[in-house]
Amino acid sequence: MESYKILLSEEELPESWYNINPDLPRLPDPPLNPQTRKPMGPDDLSVLFPMGLIMQEVSMERWIPIPEEVREIYKLWRPTPLFRARQLEKALDTPAKIYYKYEGVSGPGSHKPNTAVAQAYYNKAEGIKRLTTETGAGQWGSALAFACNLFGLECTVYMVRISYEQKPYRKSLMNLWGAEVIPSPSQKTQVGRTILSEEPGSLGSLGIAISEAVEDAATHEDTHYSLGSVLNHVILHQTVVGLEAKKQLEKAGDYPDLIIGCCGGGSNFSGLCFPFMLDKMKGRNVRMIAVEPTACPTLTRGIYAYDYGDSARIGPIAKMYTLGHSFVPAGIHAGGLRYHGDSPALCLLYEEKLVEAVAYHQNPVFESAVLFARTEGIVPAPESAHALKCAVDEALKCREAGEEKTILFGLSGHGNFDLAAYDAYLAGELVDYEYPEEKVKKALEELPEIPAYS
Ligand SMILES: *Cc1c(COP(=O)(O)O)cnc(C)c1O
């Protein structure tokens, strides 16, 4: 009998996360304090994060045990299924085998609770009462609201005003899980009040919302800030995805020739790929492709340099591929892929050519997403559909070449709250955006000056 799903039992849920730091070809350049421009130490970060997470940020231990309380909650939806996309393969008439790891089975509907639950746990363990964060489209905000609710923490989400008004259902989910959702810019913070006094009708931006969430956390003793991508500890927590996928492929008697994931800040891509990277560094032939929107092509068009993580320049300065901290991407429907930078570890691996990257326009991405919904039945999140599009292209190349490759891609979430985007696609109303060349130059001019240090 041909199997469609490769499942693991709850006992097979990984017991540790995989930390890639000790296996990197070299260590990434350290994050810098935005005021002093000197490498940041644990003390610089302790206003915003608990020690448990700060230690993970810099850990050189290869395996970090997943606390039992976190594993218990993971069991609500983990291990997640690995699917063999047999109906899609048939529709494409490809000899390639296509597998996808599906993270949409979590309550919030994406991979994001893998880190939200861990972050809530470590904050709770250190006596924190409330977490603040920002959200654009609402995926991260709803994941953190879900996690805080389970651990009895309060949660304050600064939601970019335009999304707050246009995407009411993610806000409803956050409220349902007990979070306070504040349209940003708001009167709650100094940053917000300043912006509103200058521009009362401001629709907000992710950069402004980050600044508000950070200010709120930094000015309240019992409150910390939480970030849903980019940082090492976030990537670490997401490796549970790749560790499971590796076991599942073993069960199926397969190993991927190609691993594909969409890339916003790099967490679902890295989480899926890093457990396979060790094999690659030992010489195993496995390609890894990060997929971006052409409207926000961080790896494919960005610059590898130190840059600010946020537009208000209050967070750490990181060495990464960047489109510039003042970059405001076009309003594409993959809201989770609109960050100007990427995870420093992933950027280093890209610079070292261990990872490849491609960028796609949103119309062809939605075309693949519709094919997927009509064959496999799941409506992909617009972000995840970028990975799918690349998998489809690679499977079609296999058809041309008559090659029987094994392709693994990450389906990081479902798109059940993104149906307005599908409506727009079906009505032929989606616009494709190219990233203009002048912007690369502008980003270069705005990079912070970094003094030499040793
Ligand atoms: C947030 C999000 C992404 C992008 O974030 P990464 O950190 O790059 O993974 C991708 N897919 C979904 C479904 C998301 O919610």
Automatic annotation (TrEMBL):
Its EC number is 4.2.1.20. InterPro entries: Trp_synth_b-like (IPR006316), Trp_synth_beta (IPR006654), Trp_synth_beta/beta-like (IPR023026), TrpB-like_PALP (IPR001926), TrpB-like_PALP_sf (IPR036052). Signal peptide: none annotated. It catalyses: (1S,2R)-1-C-(indol-3-yl)glycerol 3-phosphate + L-serine = D-glyceraldehyde 3-phosphate + L-tryptophan + H2O. One of its GO terms (molecular function) is pyridoxal phosphate binding. Keywords: Amino-acid biosynthesis, Aromatic amino acid biosynthesis, Lyase, Pyridoxal phosphate, Tryptophan biosynthesis. It is an enzyme of class 4 (lyase). Residues 76-413 form the Tryptophan synthase beta chain-like PALP domain. One of its GO terms (cellular component) is cytoplasm. Pathway: Amino-acid biosynthesis; L-tryptophan biosynthesis; L-tryptophan from chorismate: step 5/5. The modification N6-(pyridoxal phosphate)lysine is found at K112. Its cofactor is pyridoxal 5'-phosphate. The keyword Lyase applies. Pfam families: PALP (PF00291). Belongs to the TrpB family. Tetramer of two alpha and two beta chains. HAMAP family: Trp_synth_beta. The beta subunit is responsible for the synthesis of L-tryptophan from indole and L-serine. This is Tryptophan synthase beta chain. The gene is trpB.
